[in-house]
Amino acid sequence: LPIDNELYKKLEAIVGEQYISDSDLDRVCNSYDATKQRSLPDVVVRPNSAQEISEILKLANENHVPVYPRGAASGLTGGAVPLYGGIALDITRMNRIIEIDEANLMATVEPGVVIADFQNEVEKYGLLYPPDPASNKFATMGGSVAECSGGLRGIKYGVTKDYIMALEVILPTGEIIHTGRKTLKSVTGYDLTKLFVGSEGTLGIFTKIVVKLIPPPEKIETIRAYFSSIKDAADTVSAIISAKIVPRTLEFVDEESIKAVSIYIGFSVPENTKALLLIEVDGSAETVLKDAQIIIDISKNNSAFEVEKAETEEEKDSLWAIRRSISPALYAISSGKVSEDICVPRSKVTQMLESIGEIGKKYKFRIANFGHAGDGNIHVNILTEPSIPGELDRAEEAVKEIFEKVVELDGTLSGEHGVGNTKSKYLSLEIGHREMKLMQDIKNLFDPNGILNPGKIFYNKEIEK
Amino acid sequence: LPIDNELYKKLEAIVGEQYISDSDLDRVCNSYDATKQRSLPDVVVRPNSAQEISEILKLANENHVPVYPRGAASGLTGGAVPLYGGIALDITRMNRIIEIDEANLMATVEPGVVIADFQNEVEKYGLLYPPDPASNKFATMGGSVAECSGGLRGIKYGVTKDYIMALEVILPTGEIIHTGRKTLKSVTGYDLTKLFVGSEGTLGIFTKIVVKLIPPPEKIETIRAYFSSIKDAADTVSAIISAKIVPRTLEFVDEESIKAVSIYIGFSVPENTKALLLIEVDGSAETVLKDAQIIIDISKNNSAFEVEKAETEEEKDSLWAIRRSISPALYAISSGKVSEDICVPRSKVTQMLESIGEIGKKYKFRIANFGHAGDGNIHVNILTEPSIPGELDRAEEAVKEIFEKVVELDGTLSGEHGVGNTKSKYLSLEIGHREMKLMQDIKNLFDPNGILNPGKIFYNKEIEK
User: Fold this and answer.
1) The dihedral of CA B257, B261, B263, B264: what is its sign?
2) What distance in Å separates the CA atoms of residue A414 and residue A407, rounded to the nearest whole number?
3) With bands split at pLDDT 50, 70 and 90, how would you rate the model's confidence at A465?
4) In whole angstroms, what is the distance from residue A357 CA to residue A407 CA?
5) Using CB atoms and an 8 Å cut-off, which of residues 186-225 of chain A contact chain B?
6) Cβ contact (<8 Å) for A439 and B189?
7) Does pTM surpass 0.90?
8) Whole-angstrom distance, CA of residue A295 vs CA of residue A237
9) Exposure letters B288-298 (e unless 16+ CB within 10 A, then b)
10) Residue B277, phi-psi category: left (phi > 0), alpha (psi -120 to 50), beta (remainder)
11) CB-CB contact of A66 with A112 (8 Å)
12) What ipTM, to 2 d.p.?
């Protein structure tokens, strides 16, 4: 569906000459996301209001032109990739923090606001917006609502969905609608707000986002514990939960990830380190000290051979360094790494990691695992070398086996990255035919011409349309 | 649509002779809910499994017979009332707690489990299921998921929706589907789980409910503060939030409610009491003591002329007595009371209460207000005397004016009771035409023959069908 001169002119009339382009440069710059897929849009438009987006979508809908909304394009499953060309709709100009309402602990933002910018602004009011994806320094609020980002604090504070109270949304047919209320409770009609959160840009484009804020904890304690087996680390996680402590973060790093970081930042760990846990507790000053001590004792009782607690902000930073460097470190040793984002019930993390180990052996891959042990959310990284013939096909088979195991353990294919187009073909492993049909019917209801982010979530295009 | 002998026999074959009845007694016993509306079903069936419900719904769907699911029928907006006859589907036999999974802080229950029974069982494991509607001693888990119950702890712990992770649901067309996962995070496809929560029995019948649990707080402190003006009480609420304290409960009781309770349980309050706040903080032992003291100081700074803090469990009970007795006390002085369940942004509670006062004067009603000040969720009780001619019509006009003010203040018609049939005609005040149409389309998608709980949420039957 090429965009002809007439349509281009109409789009230009909506956003203005300087905010539309079909130059090769702009098309390439809007062709990708963090999966490194490439697919060129025909045209890039950069609207600045709900009204403009409404008019663009009406036009696209009438002309059956695909529209691909994008924020920072930092998604990990192809969500922002313009698979079938059409319009790349860049929302980053809409980056205003409209209101921080201290009295009601609510804030209203536009979709293009960068998460960390918002978090910093909220902090000035002595408040906290808890969702904290690792990409927060560049990812936008709009994208994180579309994907329902999780992050490091999920175990205690939940995910993005838990904080989204109301939305202004442009439907694929161009109407501007409002869902939810700026109140802590509201049960009038179906919860369209939560339906939009995590819909991966396939049901509507958010132009205003109302989020709930909370007072931040008084104090945070940071602990790092080293283990000589994965099982000891997992047992420590279970024992912490059994002790009725819910840490703010409870991160797990395996041997392969540690090795990568050691090379990358010159970090050295005690010999025989097979796993480490990075644990943070927060709360009032008295409580966190007590909880931190309990966690140190539990770690030692579960054979941690070294436990460090940060006493200063610098030490905290240093304890975090290894966790923060994993992704770039793994990328450095395997630019072709295949990353997955599985989540299993917490009690099945050890079993899952063992299975991943076996699958790695079977397909002769090194696999690095790290992630949110408290959530059961494991980032699985298959370290491939794409130049080896057949390597990526073997990786795909390994991924399929991992997903089958995940479902067998009552887990989910994606804890926080979404489906996009990279996981859509596996979705039927987890979601039944009738359930999938319901989702497709909802998609068709909201987007009868299938113009908004086509090719995502639903694998079989024929069924989607 | 009468149920003929043939259909009756088929239903009987599904559930067994002793679990079906069309006796007058059983029909009357299944005709009402807590709104005191009455509408007789043609037949009452009491299934005991997902399979049985699936077969019943298939039969009803083929024959276009309305099906009205009901648990304890304690809802306050007509949700369980069989408006158009048909089948009353009593799910209370399905009352098994299937699993309490300590390792994953999750539990799985059937819909007929009484909330308090579940809470007590969870407590034995040293855990907490936070949603706590006032009806918890009789209301069922299924009903509370259908209505998305709130309750006293919403300000700190959120509402039912925040704890529902996965569901087994029977669609109106009879298929058994599964939504969500027993994991803390999952972003595969649209969130059907949260769409079902709060759908008021119009989209499907829950047969398994997976909920998240949390460790309970170590300690709770209970405070009661008396004020000589509503504004002082509201200012206290604001000041507590500004102090970055989020209480577990923050309940408000107005003069009219206090008077009713005084008569009802012989409770005497200091003269000139125009409002009282009942406040609970929870957390670690050290934190709550500190927070309680801050709240006492804030109350006094905002002209509380008396502040009590419970030192023993008995004192706690005594401080709660007045709050707990409000509903029966108001019922005792006005069996025809019209109760609403509005919710406004917390900062607008004073303004809302002032408007309610003016509307009361205009229509010559005494109006008693109490509720969750921390949430902005006010239970408005218009004390009518139904035997006076025109009284209920005037009450309806007053309600409409109150609702208009609520929407003007960015509030919602219902914080936790739902729409049912009692509020459906006002819903368009809050929800736009396009948004309403989307909800109706979703309803039609899930329930093409409109057999499940017809007459609820959607006012215009013609549009609904």
Assistant:
1) positive
2) 11
3) very low
4) 17
5) 186-192, 194-195, 197-199, 203, 214-216
6) yes
7) yes
8) 9
9) bbbbbebbbeb
10) beta
11) no
12) 0.96
Rounded to the nearest angstrom, the minimum Cα separation between A375 and chain B is 6
Distance from the first to the final alpha carbon of chain A: 16
Residue B22 burial (CB count, 10 A): 15
Which chain B residues in 254-283 lie under 8 Å from chain A, judged by CB atoms?
283
Report residue A419 as tokens. 């489906």
Residue B112: CB partners within 8 Å, gap ≥ 6? B71, B91, B92, B93, B94, B95, B140, B141, B142
Report helix, strand and coil shares of chain A as percent, to nearest 5.
40, 20, 40
Residues B46/B17, Cβ–Cβ less than 8 Å: no
Whether chain A has a CB inside 8 Å of the CB on B286: the answer is yes
Q: How far apart are CA B29 and CA B36, in angstroms?
A: 12
Contacts of A198 in chain B (CB under 8 A): 187, 190-191
Q: CA-to-CA distance for B356 and B368, rounded, in angstroms? A: 10
Q: What is the pLDDT along chain B (465 residues), one digit of tens a residue?
A: 578 999 999 999 999 999 999 999 999 999 999 998 999 999 999 999 999 999 999 999 999 999 999 999 999 999 999 999 999 999 999 999 999 999 999 999 999 999 999 999 999 999 999 999 989 999 999 999 999 999 889 999 999 999 999 999 999 999 999 999 999 999 999 999 999 999 999 999 999 999 999 999 999 999 999 999 999 999 999 999 999 999 999 999 999 999 999 989 887 888 899 999 999 999 988 889 999 999 999 999 999 999 999 999 999 988 888 888 898 899 898 888 999 999 999 999 999 999 999 999 999 999 999 999 999 999 999 999 888 999 999 999 999 999 999 999 999 999 999 999 999 999 999 999 999 999 999 999 999 999 999 999 999 654 443
Question: Which phi and psi angles does A90 have, rounded to 5°?
Answer: -85, 115
CA-to-CA dists, residue B119 to B122, B132, B140, B345, B417, angstroms: 5, 9, 11, 29, 20
Q: Which residues pair with B367 in a beta bridge?
A: B382
The DSSP annotation for A278-326 comes to EEEEEESHHHHHHHHHHHHHHHHHTT-SEEEE--SHHHHHHHHHHHHHH
**How far is it, in rounded angstroms, from Cα B19 to Cα B45?**
6
Mean pLDDT in residue range A394-411: 97
- Beta-carbon contacts of residue B80 (< 8 Å; ≥ 6 apart): B33, B68, B69, B70, B71, B73, B143, B201
What sign results for the dihedral spanned by CA atoms B372, B376, B377, B383? positive
Please count the CA atoms within 13 angstroms of the CA of A127 that sit on its side-chain side. Answer: 20
Nearest CA in chain A to B166: A410
**Distance between A242 CA and the closest CA of chain B, angstroms:** 7
Across A42-46, A128-132, B1-5, least confident range: B1-5
Question: What phi-psi label fits residue B377: left (phi over 0), alpha (psi between -120 and 50 degrees) or beta?
Answer: beta
Contact state of A192 with B344 under an 8 Å Cβ cutoff = no
Edge-to-edge strand ranges of the sheet holding B164-170: B97-101, B106-109, B205-212, B164-170, B176-180
